[in-house]
Write a structure and sequence with these properties.
By secondary structure, the protein is of the alpha+beta class. The strands form six sheets. The protein has a five-stranded antiparallel beta sheet. Helix 4 runs antiparallel to helix 7. The radius of gyration is 20 Å and the shape is globular. The chain has three domains: 84 residues, Uridine Diphospho-n-acetylenolpyruvylglucosamine Reductase, domain 2; 126 residues, 2-Layer Sandwich (Uridine Diphospho-n-acetylenolpyruvylglucosamine Reductase, domain 3), CATH 3.30.465; 71 residues, Uridine Diphospho-n-acetylenolpyruvylglucosamine Reductase, domain 1 (Alpha-Beta Complex). It is found in: Cytoplasm. Belongs to the MurB family. This is UDP-N-acetylenolpyruvoylglucosamine reductase. It is an enzyme of class 1 (oxidoreductase).
Length: 311
């Protein structure tokens, strides 16, 4: 593995009051569901929102900053990620507070946990989150949805810190949600969000969540080393149907494979590299374009640099 230069001493000198954890050249394959990817030049886990703002305020504006969540919908390229990679965690970003029909969740909270917490409080409308294997931060960034529900249906507001270290609050309207997309500025790191449910029957909500779980387990390769849905559904169509029609079900490249179970999922079946998985996805896109004329767009985030330029 090629290592990046250690810039932590310079960061500590610029931010002596920093309380969060800094790690040099942390291998990110351990933090992604695909189990691939090179190192983060610096991995930073802030102590709380103020700690995050402090770091962003003093960092060189030219130093790249990247945010990762649970790693479920992510390909980290083999050369790793230069600059500072931020991963939120702990109580400061991992708690849920309920006030009447609203829930405030830190962005490190898994979507599934928010759904469960809402159900326990007899709040309906968030059960769809049970079918999304990511965190609240990712849900805000891409308007995550499943089983007939989307983040936009339940969000009241979101808050985060921008690249200058300034706290920003976004109303629902300012999020600019569309299908699997938000218009919120790319430099904002979301820290928490306020959601609104509606009164419901706990048993009925939990039964709906059980149906979502069963449907997901029956249709998706969730026990494999995989990510979420690989490609966005094109207008009026289904990505998996186009992939299937292009003859890509079960297609392999290196250690990567298009899932036989659900062909809008890629899997790491035999020690694949990130390059294998991304190249397979591009080959699928090429074949779909040739057979149907439809341009599929990635839903999975691909970040970092190739191995040849990693350090």
């Amino acid at each position: 593995m090629t290592a990046f230069p250690d810039i932590i001493p310079a960061i500590r000198a610029a931010a002596p009051a920093l309380r969060g954890r800094l790690i040099a050249n942390q291998l990110l394959s351990d933090l992604t569901w695909f189990r691939v990817g090179g190192p983060a030049q610096v991995l930073f886990t802030p102590a709380d929102e103020e700690d995050l703002a402090h770091l962003l305020d003093v960092l060189d504006p030219d130093l790249p900053v990247t945010v990762i969540g649970l790693g479920s919908n992510l390909i980290v390229r083999d050369g790793g990620i230069p600059g500072v990679t931020i991963r939120l965690g702990g109580k400061a970003f991992g708690s849920v507070e309920i006030d009447g029909e609203t829930l405030r969740a830190g962005t490190a909270v898994p979507d599934m946990r928010l759904a469960k917490t809402a159900a326990e409080a007899s709040l309906d409308g968030l059960a769809f989150l049970r079918g999304i294997p990511g965190s609240i931060g990712g849900a805000l960034r891409m308007n995550a949805g499943a089983h007939g529900g989307e983040t936009t249906d339940v969000l009241v507001e979101a808050r985060g810190i921008d690249r200058s270290g300034t706290l920003r609050v976004f109303t629902h309207a300012k999020m600019g949600f569309t299908y699997r997309h938000s218009e919120a500025p790319e430099d904002v790191i979301f820290t928490s969000a306020l959601f609104r449910g509606r009164p419901g029957d706990r048993r009925e909500i939990e039964a709906e969540m059980d149906r979502v779980t069963a449907a997901r387990e029956a249709a998706q390769p969730i026990r494999e080393r995989t990510g979420g849905s690989t490609f966005k559904n094109p207008p009026g169509g289904k990505a998996w149907q186009l992939v299937d029609a292009a003859g890509c079900r079960g297609l392999t490249l290196g250690g990567a494979q298009v899932s036989e179970m659900h062909c809008n999922f890629l899997i790491n079946r035999a020690d694949a590299s990130a390059s294998d998985i991304e190249a397979l996805g591009e080959e699928v896109r090429r074949r779909v374009r040739e057979t149907s004329g439809v341009e599929l767009h990635w839903e999975i985030r691909r970040i970092g640099v190739p191995a040849s330029t990693g350090g």
